[in-house]
Each structure stands twice: as structure tokens, then as C-alpha cells.
Amino acid sequence: MILTCLACSKANRVPAARVLDKAKCAACKAPLLPLRRPVPVASAADFDELVRSAPVPVLVDFWAAWCGPCRVVAPELEKIAEQRPGQLLIAKVDTESLGEVAARFAIQSIPTLVLFRNGAEANRLSGAMSASAILSAFAL
Asked: Is residue 15 in some structural domain?
């Protein structure tokens, strides 16, 4: 997966299987991990690697830029990412640019949140909700 450094904005590739390791930006040496923010998914291959290889559960937000409820749930997912570094990975899949991934999981409404454990779908919810409601619904 591609992580953008918060300090210098450079893109860094980090294997999904190593999200619990320590990693630094190749350009400025600022820490990249643990992840404290949702990660945008750039391609179907990156998505597949992430859900297959991540050593922690992956909560995927299927969203689109034009979707009002998606904009409401985004800061709630940021809160969860900040609260659960190293325990949960939050990924964002733009259904407009990765329609084939959304179609593969029969996403019919957005936002839809899908929890993956050990590479398999464990649960899903649709609609905007608070961070506490998301954590409670997924028993996280």
C-alpha cells in the first residue's frame, strides 16, 4: 500500500503484511507507522494485498466524493483510526475510481463499511454513523 508522509507529502510503499512494524519515510525519515489515519486504496491489486495480508482487521469504507453521508462518516473513521493504531486498519475505496472492487462486493449503497478478518468478509453495514456506533456494530 502507498502511504503519504504527513511531514513531507512523499509517497512511500509499505507492504500490508508489515503494518505493525516500524517504518520511516524514505525522504525525510519521519515515522509512517503506526497508522493513525485511514489509508486510500489506489488499485484493485493494492486492495487485494491489503485484505489478504494485513495482520489486523481491515475496515473498508466504500465511498464517493459526491456522497453527502460519506463526508459525514469520514471524520468518524478518522477518530477510530486515531484511537486504534496497530489494532485496526481503516481503508478507503473510492467506488468511482475502483468500481470493479465495489462490484466484486456487490456494493449497492454508500457509504458501506465492510470488516475483513484474515482476508474474508466478516461483517458489513451501510449508512453514516458515529465512531462509537461503528465500533459497537462491528464489536471492535
From this structure: no
C-alpha dihedral over 74, 77, 82, 86, to 10 degrees? Answer: -130
Catalytic-residue membership of 70: yes
Q: Give the chain's domain count.
A: 1
Report the CATH number that the domain containing residue 66 is assigned in CATH: 3.40.30.10
The residues with which 112 forms a beta bridge, in sequence order, are 62, 126
pLDDT digits (tens, 9 = 90+) for 33-52: 988 999 999 999 999 999 99
Per the structure, the complete domain to which residue 64 belongs is given by 35-137
Interval 56-80 mean pLDDT: 97
Per-position DSSP letters for 22-72, written without gaps between them: --B-TTT--B--S--S-EE--SHHHHHHHHHH-SS-EEEEEE-TT-HHHHH
Concerning whether 25 is annotated as a catalytic residue, the answer is no
Q: Which of these is catalytic: 8, 25, 28, 67?
A: 67
Residue 90 neighbours by CB under 8 Å, 6+ apart: 35, 37, 38, 39, 58, 59, 60, 61, 77, 80, 81
Instruction: Find the catalytic residue in 5, 8, 25, 70.
Output: 70
